[in-house]
Records
---
Amino acid sequence: MPVEAGAASFGTNVRFATFNASLNRAHAGELLADLSTPDNAQAREAAEVIQRNRPDVLLVNEFDYVPGNAAANAFRANYLQRGQHGARPIDFPYAYTAPSNTGVPTGYDLDRNGVVGGGNDAQGFGEFEGQYGMLVLSKYPIDIAGARTFQHFRWQDMPGAMLPDDPATPAPRDWYSAPELTLLRLSSKSHWDLPIRVGKGTVHFLVSHPTPPSFDGPEDRNGTRNHDEIRFMADYVTPGRGGYIYDDAGKRGGLPATERFVVAGDNNSDPIDGDSVPGAIDQLRLSPRVLDPHPGSAGGVVASRQQGGANAGHRTDPFFDTGDFADKAPGNLRTDYVLPSRGLIPWWGEVFWPLPGSDLARLNDASDHHLVREDVFVP
């Protein structure tokens, strides 16, 4: 793709996708070094997953931020534009990266372990600035001048924010002190609104990567943040609810009701199972302007049955699972989403989870997440 819909060009078919490719590294500079040659085994597998699925517009989560698109350019030149294991090369003329809150120091002991510093005390969990960042690749032009980023939006500026509570005190929502809240940002990475020019119109690609709702204590500081990171995007696309939002350039307000969009990302939230706050993902998935096409895979069903453990007690249909996590807990979950807006027509979607024993089953180890794609007709 893309494919023009008939001679009259009534619209365009566009394949949108999200893939947490686990292309993060332990130290700054390592990802760029790995991508500077064409022989990194993990990057080759991630590239093959992308080549096998042929998206037109793609969000890559857990791709360390490197200024100047340097890592993105290396990934395109050395991996995506080279056929991997018999797959056809794929070219994305347009790429977008921007700074991430991960690893940005706050100067406070946010996790209260008695030591200031390290990933848990950063604006978003990360051992260095930009770890676990985001990358958008596109075959269609990205309107860079029209892009909005929300890296610096403060958590306390969300009306009714679900701030974490210290269970040892009677005061509500008091895990963080007033000085900490003065600087603590909502987004653990960032939230982006990237206008993609498709045909004669625009589709806003709205991407993020909310923090996992785990790795904390009874205060649930990560679970509450995950909930509000998801809520932020739901408010952004819902008329009448995004007035409090401001972007990094100071522009206020959410997305106008006339605009079309596709929301994509690893939201770290299953509709029923796992550790997220109940209803967290439904804020977005069931919001009035959003469509949930429910892409799935037979591979997810087989994996759930074979791996057992926590999967045996799950209530979400494993056909919709996208993440292959530890069998004991939390098991496999639906965490990755591609959600078009009303006004667009989703007509085919899949989770790329090859069946065991198939030729492509070797790619199931490329990441603990599986690529999710949705074919959308843009009138």
---
Amino acid sequence: MTCSIVARDPVTGCLGVAVQSGVLAIGTRVPAARAGVGAVVAQAGSELWWRTTLLDLVASGMTAEGAVAALATQPGVAEAQFAVVDATGGVAAFTGPDCIPRAGHALGDGVAVQANMMASDAVWPAMLAAYGSASGGLPERLVAALAAAEREGGDVRGPQSAALLVVGPARGALSNGEWDDPVFDLRVDDSRDPVGDLSRLVRVARAHRNLIRSATPGVSEDDAVSALRAAAEGAPDDPSALRSAGIGLAVRGRHAEAFPLLERAFALEPLAERWARAAAVRAGDAGTALLTWLDAR
């Protein structure tokens, strides 16, 4: 009923899982992850508590292979699928002998893909290949694997939901300046194009992370401006990102960049102008030019 991927990013140490299915809100049932421990999936009739069990086994010191082997001794696994990637990049997966066809899994370096009730046996090999060749960060590569599954026919019932969860290599802030666990936690619960919607959400989430970075205490002016520009470029159709980036640039005196962004934000969401006006007032002297421009519109 579902295809999924678990993986560890060898560069950042982040752990991630992505899943799509022809059922409602698959993100509430299949994926789980714990910073510094691992990422897991339990699908195809798996019990919900199996996800926690897998993570607890790995947290206790068991390898991914050991955790999967231990769970595979439980009653009811004949129709089930589950997989683990641990904090060292160890991976393991299980497909029960009675799992709904077409079903299978494949393992790579720090990555496991698994699928059942698929239109084709080509789905999981295509997912593994797509993850390995995709560009971008871990979230983008995970979504690329889901997109590859769709190209091979995906779930025989058609698509409905998808989810992405990425956590850090340890509890607390990451060494590359990212924030605490979870790093990404996104779900598309009901859509005719859940993977496309999930891809868009990744872009919007990155934009909003840039907005947070621009306001981080101690950030340099140049870095703040770069983050604001990246936010606007990354989510050109998101009024919230455009509004916040425009305000941030305006109060820094970069009016030629700011005002076109705000115009776009207002066109997408007229209520954004009310927030921009309030922000201009709060900014005091730094917001005078923004307030004047708003009054003149």
